[in-house]
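ok so I'm stuck.
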Amino acid sequence: MRPRSPRGKLACMMLAVAVQSDSIKGAEVSDKVTSLSLLERLRDSSDDEAWRQFHDLYGPLIRYWLVRRGVQSQDAEDVQQEVMQLAAGELAKFQHSGRIGALRCWLRQVVANRLRTFWRQKNRQGLALGGSDYAALADQLEDPHSELSRVWDEEYQQTMCARLLELVQGEFQAQTMAAFRGVAVEGRKAAEVGEELQMSTNAVRIAQSRVLRRLRELAQGMLD
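replied:
not stuck anymore, here's the structure
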């Protein structure tokens, strides 16, 4: 996953607004219930689908984030696996407060602790190639007021946004996705997008509505 350009960041912000708009009335409670129901499913060790969804969403995010901070690729892979293994046991006891960002903060702390433990183990073995940089990274990540924690929150949202688009991409025809991106992400008028794609204005709006509906369904399963 490549670093996003400023335009890519803006597109993610616009997509987040688009996914949330038109569904605000009465959705705050229902979205919370849906997300917390996924947490309940994660407490069931026999629910393989829930764990696959959790791993597919958050595993790549953790690895990508660590690599971007200078952690070696193999080390990032190892830390990611350790975080996922710990989550498998700890999520059964995790109590979501219902506040936005509760899981995100919990994951940040887990990554910081696993990274520090990983560095200490490597150091004892004489293999701590990352040196004290890994420990310093863990300290900054553990501090909720650090600049690094702010970046974690920002990139978390961007990555979840990008992941939503990846998940929905294969479910619609290319023309439908192009119409959605033109209106919902790029902020262009439906008539303009329709002329470019040889679609009627109404067809563009229908395409936008269909993709948004599916994005909302997927977004409800993303714990935060």
